[in-house]
Specification:
Layout lengths: L9 E3 L2 E4 L3 E5 L19 H14 L2 H17 L4 E6 L15 H13 L2 E8 L21 H14 L6 E7 L7 H14 L3 E5 L3 H11 L3 H7 L7 E5 L5 H6 L4 E4 L1 H7 L6 H7 L2 E4 L9 H16 L8 H14 L8 E4 L15 H10 L5 E6 L2 E5 L2 E2 L2 H12 L4
This protein binds zinc ion.
Length: about 400
């Protein structure tokens, strides 16, 4: 069943106040290739984009990881995002050797989010191989572990280390059915269930992933995940782009995180959001590869791209339901939005003419008409982290980011 529509936007004096947006899928370091990976000059396929992304991933050190994430998160906060699910897969040094402090890159990323004032769920990625029968290559050496127990040990270390910060959670994420074998999926399922952790995976983003899964398992990705028992209320399928009808139905009890700005940029295709909604999948959104950081754009793209795909209007959600999907992202990453609040400037040109009364019309005006430009203040757990449209610590964050970026320019 669809999310229950409740109205979302409050009036506080003149200002418009929203309860928060979660971005349930993020790779913060990919902010570094925004504008550098989109056109024929940079190659023209998903796989040429991946080569660009791997170039950055293969050179990051812990200070870079902090600097890139610190700025990416400052921008997210300024755009009205208060919680992020970070799908974290660069773990080891450039030769593939674990750091003496095994979770140094994950910890740097969590610190970046907390210094920016955001809530974060660090989804520690499990990665075993380039594909079935193919060992990790080049940059992937930084992603892989020799066995799943070692990787799960890092999840426990992170859980222990961040236990006392209520704005931090840890989860785990088998990268995809391409990158891990079935026994790793089963181990992830049991580990997440035993500790009640969020369990995320990239699912059916590219046709090649489906072909490889069929060749290895004789099953499509969602069929495999279903058969192995990974699907359910803790599971978040990221993308879910290329599904057959029975696969959309199988995701009915799970979350689906759609990342339209990234999926458009990469030419992934468009998911059948209507089928997922009808199946009862809980829809949420993610900024993913940072082609955009605007949560308003990500949310309304769920509806607008479905209109493009189907040739019909009002196919998935009205404004209130879209804003509700921004909140569903908190549950997808195991966090709550208590004390989170976004204040929009009623004088923002896109909001001129908004109705005075709270209700479905005001929600539609904000969900379909507003952009991140209107965000004036952001509070996370009651704490002011963006004021006057400026995220806290912006100048230092920008300087460190630009200095890291110069190395790849
Ligand atoms: Zn991703």
């Amino acid at each position: 069943m669809a999310e229950r529509a409740v109205h979302q936007v409050r009036r506080a004096g003149d200002a418009l106040v929203l309860p928060g947006h979660a971005s349930a899928h993020s790779h913060a370091f990919q902010r570094a290739i925004r504008g550098r990976s989109h056109t024929r000059r940079d190659g023209a396929s998903f796989w040429s984009w991946r080569a660009q992304m791997y170039r950055v991933a293969s050179e990051l050190d812990p200070d870079d990881a902090y600097a890139l994430a610190r700025f990416a998160y400052a921008e997210l906060a300024a755009c009205g995002v208060t919680a992020v699910g970070e799908f974290h897969y660069v773990h080891h040094d450039p030769s593939g050797t674990p750091y003496a402090d095994r979770t140094i890159l994950a910890d740097a990323t969590i610190r970046a989010a907390r210094d920016a004032g955001l809530r974060i769920t660090l989804l520690r990625v499990l990665y075993a191989r380039a594909g079935a029968g193919r060992p990790a290559e080049d940059a992937q050496r930084r992603f892989v572990d020799p066995d799943v127990e070692v990787a799960l040990g890092d999840v426990d270390a992170l859980v222990g280390r961040w236990r006392d910060d209520p704005c931090v959670r840890v989860g785990l994420a088998p990268h995809s059915v391409r990158a891990v074998p079935a026994p790793w999926l089963e181990a992830a399922r049991d580990f997440a269930a035993a500790r009640a952790l969020p369990l995320h995976a990239h699912v059916a983003e590219q046709p090649r992933e489906i072909h490889e899964c069929l060749a290895e398992h004789g099953r499509r990705p969602v069929e495999l995940l279903d058969e192995l028992g990974l699907l359910g209320e803790r599971f978040v399928a990221v993308h879910a782009t290329h599904l057959r009808a029975h696969e959309a139905r199988a995701l009915g009890g799970s979350f689906v995180c759609v990342c339209r700005s990234t999926e458009r940029d990469l030419g992934d295709g468009a998911p059948d959001v209507s089928a997922l909604r009808d199946a009862g999948a809980r829809l949420c959104v993610g900024v993913d590869g940072y082609a955009s950081s605007d949560p308003f754009e990500e949310l309304r793209a769920l509806e607008l791209d479905e209109r493009t795909r189907t040739g019909a209007r009002q196919v998935v959600a009205d404004g209130a339901e879209l804003l509700q999907m921004g909140l569903a992202g908190y549950e997808a990453i195991g966090l709550t939005a208590d004390g989170d609040e976004i204040t929009l400037d009623p004088a923002d040109l896109a909001l001129v003419g908004a109705p005075d009364a709270e209700g479905p019309l005001l929600d539609d005006v904000v969900a379909f008409g507003a952009s991140a430009r209107a965000v004036r203040q952001v509070r996370v757990a009651g704490e002011l982290v963006v004021d006057g449209g400026v995220p806290r610590g912006l100048d230092a964050a920008r300087t460190a980011y630009e200095s890291a970026l110069r190395r790849w320019a």
